[in-house]
Amino acid sequence: MPMTAFVVSGVSASFVPGRGQRVAAATSMRSPLPLRRRAVAAPLQLRMRDWGVRAGGVERFADALVETANKIASPGRGILAVDESTKTIGKRLAGIGVENSEANRQAYRELLFTCEGLGQFISGAILFEETLYQSTRDGRQFVNTLNQIGVIPGIKVDKGLAPLGGALPHETWCTGLDGLSERAAAYYQQGARFAKWRAVLQIVPGGPSRQAIVENCYGLARYARTVQDQGLVPIIEPELLLDGDHTIERCAEVQEEIYSTLYQICQTQGVFLEGTLLKPAMTLPGADCKNRVSPDRIAELTVRTLERGVPAAVPGIMFLSGGMTEEEATINLNALNTRKRKGPWALSFSYGRALQQSCLKTWMGKPENVPAAQQALLARARANGKAQQGQYTPGSEPTLDRTGTFEAGYKY
């Protein structure tokens, strides 16, 4: 089968058309330029002739998808997830005694999106549809304020969970494929450059069922290819809930099955892996498991599980926090990035509650508290930026979140 090569600063890699997957890398290439010219320093460049993607729309955006995915997964940075539904953000606001009104939701998100310096540690922000079209009080669109501080806007595109007939009683599938292509095109026009779709699976005796795994992985793959055709990088989120008393070893076993199924279906659906990101849970014991484990053990099994199931073509793995405390989520991320691994992907974060709890508790809905709340947000963003590089010292950044935010059967 013919292969296509590209050059990255003197390093070659090859792709098989139709597969979109790297099969050879880091081999020396003879320079096409005279030595005299190559001695001059030049920025890193990708000369991409053909990504070998399956036709259908994604080929128009292939270079931009790769660029966006790699920017989001860049060193020392991660994602701020602020895509809570109106109902869910209402719970957060109620926790600080603030009414769930559009004006209060707008004020809180303006606090986040105008935080100077946030882009040093945050590369992307996942928004709810309402937020994508909102503006600051002085009329600047949120997508523009995010771009101004160096944060790429993204959008939650799924329409929530529904019961999965024929599966276990609690199992669900994720809705939202109908009309997704048109919505994705509109979101791109508004300024979004990546998307997120959350499927949910749960470990119980005899589960998750094979039906639930296949159905949810199929939905993730169809979503991914659909939004890629409209120019959005898909964040693929097969969340395995913390609910239950299962061991960390059982979690690893189930995650391996999920990842292998997911990427087999992504292959059949023509998903361009170099233009995607994965958002999984870390490999953890259930919330009710009596056997507590260390961050090093979490890192060991998480990395092993990823290496067994996630292709090297995926640029970044952006972990969800899943109800861990702010500090716990940061310490576990740091452990992951201090562990040697074969996998080339960036290991980073896409945290919602684990980035916002101290910020919310500092803000309390009061305009005079905005500067202090932004500093609280910056502190946790900085902590996770350090952890993404394996450089975080536990306790070195402040937190007001001592108990975590785990909710059984968590829904956005």
TrEMBL record:
One family name in Pfam for this protein: Glycolytic
GO MF, one example: fructose-bisphosphate aldolase activity
Origin: domain of life: Eukaryota
GO cellular component: chloroplast
Pathways involved: Carbohydrate degradation; glycolysis; D-glyceraldehyde 3-phosphate and glycerone phosphate from D-glucose: step 4/4
Keyword set includes Lyase: yes
A GO BP annotation: glycolytic process
Catalytic activity, reaction form: beta-D-fructose 1,6-bisphosphate = D-glyceraldehyde 3-phosphate + dihydroxyacetone phosphate
Gene3D superfamilies linked to this entry: Aldolase class I (3.20.20.70)
Cross-referenced InterPro entries: Aldolase_TIM (IPR013785), FBA_I (IPR000741)
Subcellular location: Plastid, Chloroplast
UniProt EC number: 4.1.2.13
Protein name: fructose-bisphosphate aldolase
Organism: Cyanidium caldarium (Red alga)
